[in-house]
Amino acid sequence: MICTYYADVRCLDNERLFREKLRLLSPYRQQKIAILRHEKDKNRSLAAGLLLDHALEIYGLQEKSVEYEIGEWGKPTLKYHPEICFSLSHSGDYAICTIGDKPVGNDIEHVKAGRLRVADRFFAAEERDWLYEAEREEEQVQRMFRLWTMKESFVKAIGRGMSLSLQDFVVHMDGESGRARVRHSVDAKYYQMREYREIAGYCTAVCVQDGGDIAYSMIPVELY
Question: What is the pLDDT of residue 163?
């Protein structure tokens, strides 16, 4: 099972609640939050850490008690629990955490108009063709963010981050099923993707390293 937890971060605008929740997290996460300049960024980072803490409960763990290892490309993993894979992301008013027993990446993006130049600059030709098949600009923008979140989730799943050019692999959408596949030459492994539409105004995607039949879930969490 690959579980993705999501939460609205706006409750953390309450300073008392923010301080109370911050104490629940590890020094590693607290330090990451402390170096952020803007309060909204701090809230999103805190929310992501709280979601990871919530997700780890099923394993009998707490985020404040785990130790991290940082990979060559900056991806954190749990030092003494390599069997647990996770990915964190946040955008706008939401944070997400995906967790499971297979290498995983996720991404969430607040859909905004006027971003099509991103696709022209970073997307592969086949992806741009699919994007511009849509006649209305509103649908083109939606497709751009759908592709963007899937591409981001892939580079996070392989642990490479933005060191891998977004034009070096191609996402093929499976119609409107919410699933996609990726053509790449990074390694010999198979990756599958799934997108979620539970959060209005946002695109959310998860990428998992595996070719089997995987069960997915998207679960809301209240932080207060």
Answer: 67
Q: Check residue 29 and give its pLDDT.
A: 96
Torsion of CA 150, 48, 116, 138, to 10 degrees: 90
DSSP labels for 65-133?
A: G--EEE-TTS-EEETT-TT-EEEEEEETTEEEEEEESS-EEEEEEE--SS-HHHHHHHS-HHHHHHHHT
Residue 108 to residues 11, 64, 74, 134: CA-CA distances in angstroms?
A: 19, 24, 19, 22
Q: How many Cβ atoms sit within 10 Å of the Cβ of residue 41?
A: 13
Residue 151 to residue 130: CA distance in whole angstroms: 14
- Taking residue 54's Cβ as centre, other Cβ atoms within 10 Å add up to 18
Cα 100 to Cα 63: distance, rounded to the nearest angstrom: 15
Percentage, residues of the chain above pLDDT 70: 96
Residue 166: count other Cβ atoms within 10 Å of its Cβ: 21
Global confidence as pTM = 0.92
Neighbours of 117 (CB within 10 A): 9
Q: Decide: residue 215, CB within 10 A, 0-12 exposed, 13-18 middle, 19+ buried.
A: exposed
- Give 154's pLDDT tier (boundaries 50, 70, 90): very high
Percent of the chain at pLDDT > 90 equals 71
